[in-house]
Amino acid sequence: MQHKVWIDYLRVIAIVAVIAIHVSTVFYKQLGEISGFDWWFANLLDSASRFSVPLFVMASGAVLLGREISPGTFLQKRAWRLLPPLILWNLVYLVAGYFLWNPDQRSLLDMTLTMVRAGHAYGHLWYLTMFTCLMLFAPFVNQYLRGEAPRGVDLLWLAGLFVLFALMTQGAVLVRYVADSEIKWFAVFPLYLLYFVGGYALDRYDDRLRCPAAVLVGIVVATVLVGALGNWLLFRHTGLDEDFLVLSNRGLLVIACTFAIFRLLRQNAHRLKPRASISAWSDASFGIYLIHPLIIFATLPLSRYFDGMLALFMVLDVAAVALVSFLIVRLMRRFAWFRRVS
């Protein structure tokens, strides 16, 4: 399969946006505590970066869908790719959380049970859980898109998945009423199929889906501004400081913004030339995603030296976290075992 250079650029944009969200959201929650300029900068930076994870999913759709591969082989390859980092990094953040982010002195057992209920040990790892669930159904979506009739063994695989998710749903209902606790991590992935299939479709039918660049840029700008204004209104009138309420990954604004950005890159693929630096950053993007919160934790205290200049700190911190994370991943990937988990 021919390497798609423009996907490398897309992944670099997406990983920088991920870091921008996680740096800016700290200050976004401080409306009234920091200057209005700094808060609005955090709000706009956060709003302009919400496409990050959906864009990663669209990239995966463009790369993985449409290939001639059996469901069994597909699942086996994805399992070897996803299960090692899913297990290891949840353990890493579970231990790190116990020692670094545990003000209530919770026991390791209690935090482990919380991880099982949430589906992840630390916020950003929700993506691994969601994407793993998505990959379980991806080969059957691929068969449909290719017009292939499923074999008997394929239908057995699919039936087994439905049984598995039915059992998890039943277990979640029991836990909800017996232990008053929500378990819904396994139900997050379905709408991400829109991004996954959308990435395939916008790539595969590029010649039929052309759109003026000015329109696409206008969509991106409009969704960011509407989202930022919505954030401000919600925060000001209700006190709700979550940045995903107006700009949800599964909401219309982020969907429109992400699809527009994807189209912009796809339509300009011929202008995006192969570059060793872009390829290196793209290759390291998954590892950067996994490790960057640890770097943010280390750099965030430096913000106290930027009193009145937090906007500058956010820009510098995004750049510093991206660079340090990249260098660590590149260094650690010299070891074969680290390549398996990043």
Shape: globular
State the separation between the terminal residues, measured CA to CA: 22 Å
Q: Report the C-alpha radius of gyration, rounded.
A: 21 Å
Helical stretch tally: 13
Mean pLDDT: 95
Q: What percent of residues adopt helix (DSSP H or I)? A: over 70%
The count of DSSP E runs of length 2 or more, i.e. the number of strands, is 0
Number of structural units classed as domains: 2
Task: Give helix and strand order, one letter per element, not per position.
Answer: HHHHHHHHHHHHH
What oligomeric state is this? single chain
Helix/strand-derived category reads mainly alpha
Low-confidence stretches: none
What amount of the residues lies in strands? Answer: under 5%
User: What does the largest sheet look like?
Assistant: none
Please tag this protein with its features:
342 residues, mainly alpha, 13 helices, globular
3D structure, described in words:
- This protein is mainly α.
- The protein has helices at residues 5-28, 36-47, 52-64, 71-100, 108-118, 126-146, 152-179, 192-204, 213-238, 252-267, 276-299, 310-332, 336-340.
- It folds into two domains: 1-49 and 205-342, no CATH class; 70-190, no CATH class.
- It contains 13 helices and no strands.
- The longest helix has 30 residues, at 71-100.
Tell me the layout of helices and strands.
Blueprint: H1 5-28, H2 36-47, H3 52-64, H4 71-100, H5 108-118, H6 126-146, H7 152-179, H8 192-204, H9 213-238, H10 252-267, H11 276-299, H12 310-332, H13 336-340
